[in-house]
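Usage example:
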Amino acid sequence: MAISDHDIINIALEWKNNGRKVAIATVIQTWGSAPRGVGSKLLIDDLGNFEGSVSGGCVEGAVIGEASDLFKTGNAKILEYGVSNEMAWEVGLACGGTIKIYLAELN
Amino acid sequence: MQRKILEEIISRQGERESLAYVIDTENGDELIFSKGKKTNYPELDMEIIDCLKSDRSKLVQIDNKNFFIDVYNPPLKLLIIGAVHIAQHLINFANNLNFDCILIDPREGFANKERFADVKIYNSWPDEVLPELGIDERTAIVTLTHDPKIDDVALDYVLNKSCFYIGSLGSKKTHNARIERLSKKHSKEKLATIHGPIGLDIGARSPAEIALSIISEMISELRL
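Running the assembly step on the lines above writes:
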């Protein structure tokens, strides 16, 4: 079944209660055309499972990578993704927008 | 985020409370804001109230601090008058969109668990049950029976409420006759808020397609 933003927080708690480490990535700001609005969430656990989204699939992989760092350090951080440069091996949004994401662990 | 904060958001959401989760993105200080509560910054309080009203989360800068305001409003509510074929499809779409759906039809042959498994059913006349349902600006209502005995009493009640969407199934002719009957008690301006004939004009034919056109019109009313 498709996951709504409403279900996301319930899933986060369920994962946490099952003893998993849980990171919540939330879109906190967007510029230009961004695929998901402010408040959209992506959940990641310490096994690399994820639910929800913060973009149209463009930057989720990078955010999941950041989450594994977060599980080591415990430090919340702000991530920013902009337009991707086709010539470089970098992650970005093809739609031309920029998004700011707050990534923090559920303690 | 602390687990106990998340638990509190979830449990208060269950009570249909309107909440904002506020976090200082530099130091991680967090709190839950609801009506009547205050933070240390009056300017932030006003921003939060504005976010709750517009149902939009937002990053704000106050006093050289960055606060992210995350809005948790209760789910939208959809009241369906008439347990007809279109209602079955409408409920499927609405459940996917996370609406709380309520089906009202006094005819038990129409509104029963056999035909409608995934929805709360009231086998009552609309005027008996609508006053108990907490109709507000996050509520939509559609009347689908074509029967003035059932549809009109529902419209008569909700026209004095603040629903974000009111739609009534029926042809132009049916709708004009409906407006004529209701104009004895309601102003022209109020009656003009009823979407009739219901739904966006996408050339819908089947009950599922008509349900799609209704739900699309509802979302456009909410978002545009």
